[in-house]
Amino acid sequence: MRHTNPRAAYAARTTQIHAKLARLQQLADDHFGHDPDAVHWGHVGDLGRVEQALDELLAIFGGKAE
């Protein structure tokens, strides 16, 4: 969808981001689809990349990485 008003575009993007954050939370609550008893180092590496990406996103908005 193309917006001519920046406020409308901002609101639309905010809605999309909230939906994606909710989906990410669902995935996290479900161990990202992994059997907790079958986790291997590849899964740990994947989560490291996710954590790094989240830190980068927080930095964009002045948030602090934990």
Structure summarized in a few sentences:
This protein is 67% helix and 0% strand.
Task: List the topology elements.
Layout: H1 6-29, H2 41-60
Question: Can you put this structure into words, describing what you see?
Answer:
With 66 residues, the chain is mainly α. The chain contains 2 helices and no strands. The longest helix has 24 residues. The mean pLDDT is 92.
Unreliable segments (pLDDT under 50, ≥5 consecutive)?
Answer: none
Helices and strands, in order, run as HH
What do the pLDDT scores average to? Answer: 92
* End-to-end gap: 35 Å
Total DSSP helices: 2
Largest sheet: none
Form type? elongated
Strand content: under 5%
Counting DSSP E segments of at least 2 residues, the number of strands comes to 0
Keywords for this entry:
66 residues; mainly alpha
